[in-house]
Amino acid sequence: MSELRDLTPLLKPRSIAILGATPDHRRVGGRPLPFLTKYAFPGAIYPVNPKHQAIDGVRCYANVGELPETPDMAIIAVPAARVLDAVRDCQDAGIPAMTVYTSGFAEMGGEGVALERALKDMVAEKGSLLCGPNCQGVANLNDRMCANFSTTLGYDDVAAGPVAFVSQSGLFAGIVAADCHARGLGIGYLVSTGNEVGVDFADVLAYAAADDRIRVVAGYMEGVRDAEKLRKAALVARAHGKPVVILKVGRGAESAAAAASHTGAMAGSYEVYRAAFRQWGIIEVDDITELFDLVELFSLGAPSSPGDRIGIVTNSGGIGVFSADKVGELGLRMAVFSPETRDAIAERIPEFGSPQNPVDFTLQAFSDPASVGWHIRHVVLDPNVDAVMVFFGVQMLNVAELVEEIKQAAALNDKPVVVCWMRGDPEGPKAFRAAGIPCFDDPLRALKALRALVTQGRIAATALDGEPVSATSATAAAARVAEAAGARLTSLGEQAAKAVLAEAGVPVTRSVLAGDADAAVAAAEKIGYPVALKVDSPDIAHKTEAGGVVLGLDTAAAVRRAHDRIMTRARAYAPDARIEGIGVHEMVSGAVELIVGIKRDDAFGPVVLVGAGGTLVEVMKDVELRVAPVGRAEAEAMVGALKCLPLLTGARGRPRADIAAVVDVIERLSALALAAPALKELDINPLMVMPEGEGARAADALITLVVEEE
Amino acid sequence: MSELRDLTPLLKPRSIAILGATPDHRRVGGRPLPFLTKYAFPGAIYPVNPKHQAIDGVRCYANVGELPETPDMAIIAVPAARVLDAVRDCQDAGIPAMTVYTSGFAEMGGEGVALERALKDMVAEKGSLLCGPNCQGVANLNDRMCANFSTTLGYDDVAAGPVAFVSQSGLFAGIVAADCHARGLGIGYLVSTGNEVGVDFADVLAYAAADDRIRVVAGYMEGVRDAEKLRKAALVARAHGKPVVILKVGRGAESAAAAASHTGAMAGSYEVYRAAFRQWGIIEVDDITELFDLVELFSLGAPSSPGDRIGIVTNSGGIGVFSADKVGELGLRMAVFSPETRDAIAERIPEFGSPQNPVDFTLQAFSDPASVGWHIRHVVLDPNVDAVMVFFGVQMLNVAELVEEIKQAAALNDKPVVVCWMRGDPEGPKAFRAAGIPCFDDPLRALKALRALVTQGRIAATALDGEPVSATSATAAAARVAEAAGARLTSLGEQAAKAVLAEAGVPVTRSVLAGDADAAVAAAEKIGYPVALKVDSPDIAHKTEAGGVVLGLDTAAAVRRAHDRIMTRARAYAPDARIEGIGVHEMVSGAVELIVGIKRDDAFGPVVLVGAGGTLVEVMKDVELRVAPVGRAEAEAMVGALKCLPLLTGARGRPRADIAAVVDVIERLSALALAAPALKELDINPLMVMPEGEGARAADALITLVVEEE
After folding, report:
1. Residue A471 pLDDT more than 70?
2. Are A469 and A332 in contact (CB under 8 A)?
3. Which of A373, A398, A437, B209 is a Cys-bridge partner for B237, taking CB atoms 3.0 to 4.6 Å apart?
4. Cβ contact B450:B387 at 8 Å
5. Quick check: A533 and A585 in contact, CB under 8 A?
């Protein structure tokens, strides 16, 4: 599994059979023949339907066995009950690729689930390249192959071009095609993957990204079926320098349920998707318009931005102010022009304009486009500027001149230049796009486009993380976990969990498990006062809630009293709990508390997390997570992204905390998560982070284990 | 000050003079005559310019004194150096209203600032209704009065209608006009207020809101010059049931600087703007497209939504999933249909569709629009649904039928219905709008429109806060503050500040100011161990940083040691600080720490705030603020909006905290803030909030005072 497939027979077939072909164009089986003809498919087309001799003048065959050659791909548009037979016929005839339009599989529930399982088995057995079922099909317009029945492709003569779109929703792909068509952008691949029993999102992403004619791969995703394959596909795209833009839907519990009934359930937490996308260099968009805008942006070949300093040139002071707000809110910065730039612009700016960033040239574009070009060129050439937005509001004159000025400015170097053209001459956007300049109708959209270019620049500049820390220590710790799982334990209490951590090279606070009050006092004397006492039970996850924690004990009498009190409370709280004893723990002072841990995501597997600890954890979602493996750079980025970072960096007279020690713990947990598949969840809460140079220690820990079914 | 003006002479003049009129239409003085003529102004127009006998066939006068009658309004388009004279001429002639286009005032800095001050004085002295300077003027198209020189109004024949737009940016107003025109929406008022030396944003807002022909007042705002007037204007709009929609720009430090150079500086923190808008029932939008969309929404008379449960009907399962995500992210909820609704829809839904929310009717709109209408009607009638979005992607057929179906569904009751029409027949949006149905081209935009209707419903349903708590206690406390200010103190240390609080009825922790170590011990014995010792100095704001705080002292010896240590450290930290002594304080345990306080905003005056205390305050911006006066309901809303609310509501086995006591403190601070103008800032940090019924106590406090210039 997890191997990317070569989709050439599916996406660049030399000849195509159509099972279930019909002359009725209202039915999906009636569409492939006219669509293939309309887009001038260069190979042979073989309609297959025993009821017809010919369809639209093309000879029709009774069954696949009769075909004069073995086609590369078969479109299957027969009723659900006959799909398995049709697929078997194709397999028997040696057809390597199939596209199954038919619905009525897992998305229907009930019998459909069983039918889909049978189909999946057949596909796996023969290694067929099957797209679908429950999909609108595949198109590769650069090679004039349109086996996608989207209404849009039928209404409009959609141009071939550099956009690849992969969609887990059929109609959504049609909307994208319509949008590209409206903007004058050409489409290469338009693939609706449906229920993905064979070919999936990642296969198409990788195949399209490797095609030299493609400039951007975008997608609509409800869920991933094979996360490792998606990671590999993202790597392929990165290796080819192709931006990948994904709209992920089904984020919340409610919408995920809707997605399940749409193309079949796919699990996994949205937070993990976000993390994985960021780790793997996939640009995630938050809404549909942004998706369309980035498709435009990258398909026009906009260069990545070398940095986040934005220059703005506008005919409206108000829009300048608005844009400066948004630059900050989008995590970008307003460039500070060099004095030379300011002076040069000032030479030719109107009296009531502004030569500062944002440059306000007021009404100059009406009378003097050359001066507007002058301003833009100076901004583009300023070494303090990384990317430029030019805004025109209600500009009715001089479109051609302005396009030419901006084209020349953009050609001066490799910095991106985008235009916002708002409610002016309707010819504006077309003219800019035709000149290769991305053009949007709202400054926020234009700035989001620039943000994507900044992100893409960062992705390109980021080295892939090296190998994670040596797993030697992880192996020993993992063996301990495996042993516990083998003994059919469902969880490990504090002492056992800390033993695993110690084995994995994660420092833990000193503690002794005491069986009675005398032992507790002896332990306290050994550890040194003050100590904390905590109930140790694999069945009590929330010790504080159970009254099972007493802190700051500094005499033997206090330890004895606390011991008895905890036992009484814990028994009252959970009468059936297995109580291993009372843990006597070293108290650590002067530390910043974090939580660090491992979770196992249904879609992405082991995930490592770090977050604010103590009271903070309850009231703010200050958690960063990443899919394992997590290397040093990524672990540093995790800590750097925490909202509670100021507590670690020595703000307000505090000592700086040992961040390197936290990074080390994260890396070790990553290695442990990968080495110990039986480890379901691990929580270190809190990890006591000492001042710089003094390390970090796990003060409490809990492990839950995967329970294998018998 | 702060009184709203009757703008009838400015916005509904019976006759108009144009000072600086010229036959050159490229100059702003050349525009009013053709614009007034084009929009068929019904009254007399008097060009004034000694250089011409007539302009465009209309008799021209040498000066205002020559006019045959006193016009209601004069447009002033003379050079900046001559504006003062022109205004004086108008005043002398008894002209009540003026619109000054001319730039070159405060926005230019330097001499312009002095010129503007002189103009402002002249206007104030005579009570003229002056709009501008540095503005594009005023239009009231319902009365065929167009004295706004926006290019848009010149190019297009903009229809009269229910939209009022007030703008502190001239070009921005033109963009809005162009957008309304493109959507087929008519404009009533289009007013560019410029530098606002006389008439301001609030005046126009109130006047337009009171006009029966207006359905929505929207605005672009860089800053408010008179917050109290804005509050009154918002009340007028509320009394007339008119939604007010504002885009506030200049939020960050950088963009505020840009705004300052645009129409002259206006101060005030953006956070306070947000709070004031919410308090006063103003809908704030976050971007330009949303502004335009809400203008469309309200101008079409969309009803407010009775609640936040959204029903979605779509031809794309994918869009359904996306929309369900966004419903949650926008703070709305997906409606759960009644079984009757589900069953009724199921009767006529296609096989692969879904009768649940989101309803997915797949391709049914192509063949069977009546069934689509059936689904929508059932959703609209479901008692569990408050508002409805209908989505059509790439829908090319049956526009008229679908418009009719949705029109009928929307007429069934008072629930809002909006449409998203994405990349289909371009006639769709026009047809829906013509039928009074708001129509957007992106589902997120449609859902944001529904959110605005939910907000507007809440605004309409919210009673205005009653009078704040009796200010008797505040008066006494304020007297103490005034006394301190009179003594020219700049700040009050902990003991003095707590005395003010106690006077204002805010409980404080017990504490005694000790002059030496012996006194400290005596105080501790009296208060009861454990105690905290803190340095008390008006010059040391950050006591902890100064080493001036020691907590948890439980013996006389410990108190003595702590006293001496604190004195040594504080003297080292701030050798020149006035040290009032060492405060000996009661220790409170089991409390939740908040911060509560007063700030004085440059634009809005006294502001009351509450936020998370302790470590939380540093790492998360968990602060709610409101402009005083703050009544009980608003104070409760403040606490309810805190992220740290779970700490107060007894989550995870904690006792519930005394929220009522916090609300009481907020109300008392509001009263104090209003009663004590010399109080610049007050910080209670922390406010110790005890378990329910046990109150809240200020454990530390600091007051800074306004220093009057001599």
Report:
1. no
2. no
3. B209
4. yes
5. yes
A257 contact partners, CB below 8 Å, separation of at least 6 = none
Cα A650 to Cα A592: distance, rounded to the nearest angstrom: 10
Question: What does the pLDDT read at residue B259?
Answer: 62
* pLDDT tier for residue B265 given thresholds of 50, 70 and 90: very low
Mean pLDDT to the nearest integer, A315-339 = 95
**Which tops the pLDDT comparison, B615 or A610?**
A610
State whether residue B411 sits within 8 Å of chain A by CB: no
pLDDT at res. A265: 44
CA angle B132, B137, B138 (to 5 degrees): 115
Q: Which residues of chain A are within 8 Å of residue B182 when distances are taken between CB atoms?
A: 423
Encoded tokens for B608:
């009351």
Nearest CB neighbour to A255, from listed B259, B325, B618: B325
Q: Averaged over B626-642, what is the pLDDT?
A: 93
Three-class secondary structure of residue B202 per DSSP: helix
The total number of residues shown for chain A amounts to: 710
Omega into B79 within 30° of 0, i.e. cis? no
Contact: B393, A442; criterion CB under 8 Å? no
pLDDT digits (tens, 9 = 90+) for B428-484: 999 999 999 999 999 999 999 999 999 999 998 886 655 555 566 788 899 999 999
d(CA B433, CA B449): 14
Q: By CB neighbour count within 10 A (0-12 exposed, 13-18 middle, 19+ buried), where does B526 fall?
A: exposed
Return the HEC string of B505-561: CCCECCEEEECCHHHHHHHHHHHCCCEEEEEECCCCCCCCCCCCEEEEECCHHHHHH
Query: What's the average model confidence in pLDDT over A548-572?
Result: 90
Q: Is B430 exposed, middle or buried (0-12, 13-18, 19+ CB in 10 A)?
A: middle
The number of residues in chain B equals 710
Cα angle A230, A235, A238; round to 5: 130
Opening angle at CA B116, ends B115 and B118, nearest 5: 65
CA B230-B232-B238 angle, to 5 degrees, is 105
CA distances from A157 to A196, A208, B183, B294, B648 (A): 28, 21, 28, 35, 62
B442 at interface of A, judged by CB pairs closer than 8 A: yes
Q: In whole angstroms, what is the distance from residue A593 CA to residue B339 CA?
A: 50
Cβ–Cβ below 8 Å for B647 and A545 = no
- Cα four-point dihedral sign A21, A26, A32, A37: positive
Q: Which residues of B touch A389 (CB under 8 A)?
A: none
Winning range, highest mean pLDDT, from A328-342, A527-541, B614-628:
A328-342
Helices (H), A649-692: 659-675
Contact of B252 with chain A, judged by CB distance below 8 Å, is answered with yes
Contacts of B387 (CB under 8 A, 6+ apart): B305, B307, B308, B309, B310, B311, B415, B416, B417, B418, B450, B453, B454
What is the β-pairing status of strands A216-221 and A283-285?
Answer: unpaired
φ and ψ at residue A191, rounded to 5 degrees: -125, 125
Give the rounded distance of the alpha carbon of A137 from its chain centre: 24
Size of interface A-B (CB pairs under 8 A): 250
- State the DSSP H helix or E strand holding residue A312, giving kind and residue range, or none if neither: strand A309-314
Mean pLDDT of chain B: 92
Query: What's the rounded Cα separation, in Å, for the pair A273 and B156?
Result: 48
Angle at A110 between CA A107 and CA A112, to 5 degrees: 50
**Helix B227-239 / helix B201-209 crossing angle, nearest 10 deg:** 10
> Is the CB of residue A176 less than 8 Å from the CB of residue A167?
yes
Report H helices in A487-615.
494-503, 517-527, 556-573
Chain B contact present for A103, CB below 8 A: yes
Q: Kindly report the pTM of this predicted structure.
A: 0.92
What Cα–Cα distance (Å) separates residue A342 from each residue in A416, A527, B158? 20, 68, 38
